[in-house]
Specification:
Strand order of the largest sheet: 5-6-7-8
Distance between the termini: 47 Å
Order of helices and strands: EEHEEHHEEEEH
Number of strands: 8
Shape: elongated
Length: 165
């Protein structure tokens, strides 16, 4: 951290004497003070999209989950939305709380000719949504993750390029 004055090691320095960005200043934890609570504004819980699922329940997609779905699993928010709105199967996530649900939908890769199309590959996309409340006015937790059940981390490109998204 840059200082606006010379300081000896171990010397106490007022925060206003440190050249910090607002984000760095906000992240400093004062000794003995309680840690900042996790809130929508501080933890990636900002809502970037919301819609209704197959049962008309409100689904939230938050920044943190979206980043993982896009960068790690090679999917888009359009795929997640399609799965929750058009799921071929929806059920409570096994072994979890009563608020988590799995949504499944198959995506296919077709080779088409003038008079017919042939399914060459198919993959099931699983989306997990947690309807647990984050508190008054904040909505539910929302989408936890979405991935292809292929045994691989990244989904095939044809899933996010599906024409019916």
């Amino acid at each position: 951290m840059a200082l606006t004055q010379n300081v000896a090691v171990g010397q106490s320095v007022p925060l206003n004497k440190l050249a910090l960005t607002p984000a760095q200043r906000a992240a400093i934890r004062v000794q003995g003070a309680p840690a900042r609570p996790i809130t929508a504004a501080t933890s990636g819980y900002d809502v970037i999209s919301k819609w209704r699922d197959t049962d008309k329940k409100l689904v939230y997609l938050r920044k943190q989950a979206h980043k993982k779905i896009v960068s790690k699993h090679n999917l888009t928010s359009a795929v997640v939305k399609k799965v929750t709105k058009s799921a071929s199967w929806k059920g409570r996530a096994p072994g979890y709380s009563k608020t988590k649900y799995n949504y499944n939908l198959n995506f296919g890769r077709f080779i088409c000719y003038p008079n017919r199309c042939i399914l060459k590959e198919e993959v099931m996309v699983l989306t997990v949504v947690d309807f647990r409340s984050l508190g008054k006015g904040k909505g539910s937790y929302g989408v936890v993750t979405a991935y292809c059940e292929t045994g691989k981390t990244r989904c095939p490109d044809y899933v996010k390029r599906a024409f019916n998204l």
